[in-house]
Amino acid sequence: MNVTATPVNAGRAKLVFNFLIFQLGWFACVWGAANDIPVAGTTIAALVVALHLFCAARPVEELKLVIAAVVAGTVLDSLLLATGFVQFHSVSFTPGLAPYWILALWALFATTLNVSLSWLRGRWLLAAVLGAIAGPLSYWAGAKLGAVTFLQPMPAIAAMAVEWAIAMPLLMFLAQRFDGVRQPVASVEIIDV
Q1: Strand pairing partners for 87?
Q2: The pTM is what?
Q3: How far apart are CA 138 and CA 157, in angstroms?
Q4: Nearest CA among 165, 174, 166 for reference residue 63
Q5: Which pLDDT value is given to residue 95?
Q6: What residues have CB less than 8 Å from 4, skipping those under 6 apart?
Q7: Do residues 142 and 27 make contact, with C-beta atoms less than 8 angstroms apart?
Q8: pLDDT one-digit tens code per residue, 80-92
């Protein structure tokens, strides 16, 4: 019996790999922050992002998406910090801003937008609902591992739900705009003779 990889199977393998490597990077960042070695997780996240960019059809477009996600994460998580809802463990480069390990998570998350989360394209309401649920759950898991402390648990969860209900559709919009994973479709000009 000769088994060959079909495009569908190869596509599924890519989705699964993207999801699993994101989970590995997420755990490394959170575990590293919780154990006062955030550089360990951040290094793994950087390697995952580098691999993603290396494999992208148009790496510059994917890099734009990663940068946009990091900027969004800097603003949103720094606001969570400033409100006193949460405290991130490990140091920040600049007091008052979210620490670099959580910004690495935002970069890492951006690598999923055009791959394992591409099914959310154009589904703005679903993206908002998923963001409102999964976003706070991710922070809650980070708190259970010791990387984040909820200083005001209920307001923090509510703020995160709002943050991610806005961030997820915005990130999906940006993912469509800066899609470096899919090959561009060549346009054919028909000349009438």
Answers
A1: 149
A2: 0.88
A3: 11
A4: 174
A5: 81
A6: none
A7: no
A8: 999 999 999 877 7
